[in-house]
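Quick start: read one record
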Amino acid sequence: MATRTLIHLLFLILGAWMIVQLVTRFLGWPVTLLLVTCCGLTSLTIYMLRFERRRLTHVYRWPGAKQFIDLVCKVVRQQPPVDGEEHRGDEATIQLKEPVDFDWAAEKLKQRVRGHDHAIDAVIERLRKNLLLRKRVGTPAGQPPLAAFLFVGSEGIGKRHSAWELGRMLYRNAGRTVLNLRDFAGPDGTAALLGGAQQRGALLGPLKRQPYHLLVLENFDSVTPKTAEVLQTILTTGSCLDPASRTPVSFRHAVLVLTTTRIPRGLEKALDGATPDQRRQRLVDRLATEISLGRPLLAGIHEIVVFHQPDDLTRARVVLMLMQEECRRYRIRLEYVDPEIVTDEIAAYSEHHGFEFSKTRIAARLHEYLVKASENGLDRLVLTREMLLADNNLQETCS
């Protein structure tokens, strides 16, 4: 075995020497020296990525080194060496630092996510506490993710939207990824999440490119036992071993948001009047017994947030917001909407699907009026009940 390795090494040296001779003959020594230097630096970077990441972290801060190391990491599909960075690395990417920043983020989120003020307050408060502790200790090995949340609520109620907007508030120039765990519930699901030699993992791939990441894992109740072990490792140690390179991928700068649409029976009644500690314990008990979520996995989640059904006023505000967004897509301002039109849209709301299909329905409802406004060069739109009735009568007459 040692003789075979020695023979391989000799052939490698001989091949390298022949390539150097050819390059020198046709391009000259200056170009040869430049190519050899680049190859040497690349080889050293790859070696340090695998075996000396802690030292490479210090090199990563040198002027000009970051761009070169990032390029090498992109080519070899390795995570940039941010694992051991001090808190100043977080300050360059995380926007929320001072108490006033968290107050600002909570107000902004409440404007963009209607009807879930209690959930926003809980999430922002947890982030504030975690970032305060992170600021004191930095991110040494073994630190868990920056935060891990479990959002419990009906489909289409705003869980993904809340997580997405949270990522916009928390990070600057960071990654955001949404994965549906139902798509990875098969026998090869865990392998597809982690990846391999010829496959980029759906879970590890985005984190390799950008360690500062908001990761949304939907339908958490569909997690397989093998995937649950991977997630428990991530929540506990803040890292996961890449099967292809056998190097750890850091999750310490990431925020994980797990969601489920399965709500335990009688949950609101069980939580009524409970203290924060009792509330969490009852949530864990209900989720573990009725939805079969593992208690060790639930223990690694920092905050379990329940999303309630919105009242009619909140539904009306969401409908108006969706109508305004649809008009803004075409640079048209929605100035007025007849309350009866909003009432019709609220009546179409389903507690099972929430607002999942509302955007598509509103887009279809406004399509013809946006076309007419564009044809007439208008930048404002007023929707009244009389307009809708007139158009419906015209269509019935033509048919």
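The first helix runs from residue 2 to 27.
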